[in-house]
Structure formats: structure tokens, C-alpha cells
């Protein structure tokens, strides 16, 4: 039986047994010297009664009293005839059980009485119910942790709850302690706790909602310490209507409790500073077992929202080494939405340099700054921390880089302005050129150097553009000062160029590219495979296969170039397609001038007309 009713029953049974034993031995004890037991705490001064009802005549002169404290020291006591007792003060240097004496001299009929001192070893815990101090003390030093049990202290409520103290002798703050006892119910909270006891109740306990009116801590009310600052949520097995389960100390809360309740993390907020101490409660470990401290993978609650710019981000997160030498870094990558296959989700393609974190129990802030990101794009990132006990992967988190302002005006023969219209357009700048710092080295599924176009921006001429299944708008400089020309393009992979001088000044050329990346349009698809490569039916089926088709609608001087022909316009709508059997030009509106590279002829096409420049 556990809880308040269980403790009340145990105390009642104990009192009955005590009275029976007293009745059985009453006559012999009356003939022997008296014995008084005191409870004290190591390092804390005891002041109080050391001998009750001593065998001294109250009619005689007050005797002189010497108290032998049982630890090799003695001091004078004070005898009170009115109270019929002896009082004294003493500080025990260490815990343990001590047997001393109270010696009288100068009185009438005085006898030497026995003094028994039960001294708690660890004063990091206050007196709680049956305990004067901690049953277990965890001491954390630089590079080491020890757990010591005070065998003179049992469960503070007389059943199965242990009072546990923590002493920080390290040079770092303790923010958390992973604790475990295999096969135990160490974190098996069962509806009572430190504040839910009879006197003495530790200072700081408060009455929880739902307690009976007029009750107080120690007299039937449901009590616990207030939530620790920053406690993220309710403790496991919390009282109804509260975040607390009663086992917390004044600055602690519990997380990461295992399914079998044999392990978990005790968090401290504020952390325990060097030289400081605190206490809390857990279930008593089985006999002949010790509480394991640390020995787990690093812990991180997750990163804070990053600080972002158009092309960079700064990550920050806390990592607790859990007592072992730990390293940490961040993984990050652009969302799969920006890859050739589309979709959405995580793609960790990059990582930050590895950082040494430490080997203590403090929360360490790990920061890293990355650059070369794509503006106005969704990214994923997470923290990865490793020590000798394992690797912890933080939760996946996302951020979106900031959006740039409008691009500057295009520059004749050097740069054009592009804006995505539908889908994800990819841009690969020419060798030696850059899209600013926006991820020129990003590894996407279509190959190194391709960057998704996520906003209107300026790109250099000589860039390669992948507009397969998507569309974009392009604004270029014209041959006239201060004027621009516009085209909308859809489908195809092409190189971008523009003439800077001569009669064709301002002419912008979109030249289809084959085999630009894995899975891109390629003339290799036109080859029949296997033993039937020469089969006429197979060749015929491949002859008119379209590899890619680029649709253009423009207002200005534009040109499209395929493998076997080019088409020049002065503002119209048309398509150009590279096929296995040649390059096909089709006019949708106005006229187009087609230059056949194979037959060396020029053909003028009107709306609705097509021309196939056949391969040789």
C-alpha cells in the first residue's frame, strides 16, 4: 500500500507494536539506566534534549553535567529541574550511529545515562518525515560521479521513496542528470512525494488544486513544489490538474522516463552551480544496487529558431554531454520540393564543422553559421551530438530564407532577370560565374551547380536553365539604351546567350542542351537497343520521338537553337523541338525565320506552319 493511507496504516501498526514491546520490557527498563536517542545531521549543529527524565534527585543542588557525544568529544550540558531533562549543543563532523553518555556530578542519586545519536551523513537534503538527511548522495566532480548511500536512512515515508541529494563539486553547472537502475522502478512514481508527508514538511511546498478546504501540507492536503522555471510540461504521473507529481525537489523536473520506468532524466532549473547542491525524490532502488549516473548519449531538447538572411542562417541549440566527452554538428539541406523529382521532406546534404562540447552535465550552447543558401527557400536542419554511449539526432526543424528585393535592370550581353512562373526552375551559372552566394555548390538530384529559382533574380548570360515541365519569365536588355524585351519560356533545357554588338545586338538565344544531367533529354534515347537494333519497325518508332520541346512567347529579338536548326523572331509565339529525326519548328503566332543547318537553307514560316530540319 502506498500514499497517505498506506503511511497512516504503517505508523498505526508501528505504534501498536511499540506499545506491546514497551509493556513486555517495562519492568526491566525501570531498573536500568535511561537511554535517549537523538537525530542529528552531519555538519549541522544539534541543539536539544539529550536526556529525558534523568535519575537525579530534584531536591538536591543542581548537578554538573558532561555530555560525551560518542565521537570522542564532550561538552557541558544544562540540567533543568523544572523540565527534568538535560539539553546540549554539538556539531557532528560525519554521519553515522554514535553511542555516548550523559554524566552527572554533584547531584543526589544521579546515574550516568546513555546517549544514542543517529547522525545523517548528508545534509544536502532537509529533514523530511522519517529522514534527517539524504538516503543517497550523488556527488559530481570533474570527470567523475559517485553515489553513496547512508545506511542509517531508509525511505523517508517508511515504505519505498528515497530522498536523493546532489552535490556539485565540479567546475561546471549541472543542468540535468540521467539516472538509471536496470530492472528497477526508479522513476515509477506512485502518487505521493516529498511534500506529501507528515511533519517535518520541507520548506517551499505548496497546496495543489483539488485539496480539501482547510487542509495544509502535512495535514491531508495534496502538496508539491511549484514548477521549476522553464519546465516544458507536466511530469510523468503528475497529479490531476497539476504539472507536478510530488517527487520533484525545489528546482527539478523529470523527462525521458523509459517505458519500464528504470531510467530517466532529472532536470534542474536553475542549474546547480559549482559548489551548490539540491535534492529530489525517486523510488528506492533494490537492495545491493547502485544508481547509475550518466552513461547515456548526449541530450538536446532541439534547436531554437535560426536567425536567417537571404543566403545564410545561424543555428543554435543546447547540448548536454551527460558526463561523457561529446562532439556536435548540424546537418542541413534544402527541401526535396526543390529537386528534380519534386515531393517534400528532409534532405540533409550539408553539415557544419564538428565542435567539441565537453564532458560534464551542463547544457552547452552549440552555434554554427552557414552561407551559400538559396533565398526564399525552405530548408531542414537538425543537431547531431555524439559521445561514447551513442549518437543523438535532434528533431527535424525547418526555416525559410529571406526573400531578396527586386533584381536590378538587366545588362546587355551580361545578365538577364528571370522570374519563376510555375514549378521549380533550375539555374546553373557558367564556369567562373556565380549566382551571388546562393548555393552554387548545392548538391541537388540533377547534379552539382544547379540552383532552384525561388524568386525573381538576376542571372549571368551563359547560364544553363532547366525549364522542363515548368515555366519562367525573362527580361533582357534590348539593343536600345534603357529599353528591355520580355519572353516567357516553358519546357526544355537550354543555354542562355545574348549578342552585345553588331546587327544582331540584343538578340537573345535559347539553345537546347542535350544530356545536361542524369535523366535529362539526350539523343542516346534515339538508339535502338539489343539484337533487333536494325529492325525497321524499331527505328521507325524512334524516328519521330520528341526529346524536348521549348515553347516561347516573346516581345523583342529572340532566337531558339536546336541541334539541326534555329528560329529567329521579332516578337511572336512558337515552339522548337529536338526530335530523333531532326529539329521541328512550329509557329503559333506571327512569323518565324528558320535556318536549316543541314541543308543550309532559310525558311520563313507563318502562323500554323511547321518545318522539320531533318538530321543527315
What class, by secondary structure content? mainly beta
Spatial order of the strands forming the largest sheet: 31-28-33-36-37-39-40-43-44
Largest sheet: 9 strands, mixed
Report strand %. Answer: 35-45%
Number of domains: 5
Q: What helical percentage do the residues reach?
A: under 10%
Write up this protein:
It is a single chain. The protein contains two helices and 45 strands. It is mainly β and 616 residues long. It folds into five domains: 32 residues; 84 residues, Immunoglobulins (Immunoglobulin-like), CATH 2.60.40.10; 173 residues, no CATH class; 94 residues, Immunoglobulins (Immunoglobulin-like), CATH 2.60.40; 200 residues, no CATH class. Strands 31-28-33-36-37-39-40-43-44 form a nine-stranded mixed sheet, with no helix packed on it. Strands 32-27-34-35-38-41-42-45 form an eight-stranded antiparallel sheet, with no helix packed on it. Strand 34 and strand 35 form a beta hairpin. The longest helix is centred in the first third of the chain and has 29 residues. The N terminus is likely disordered.
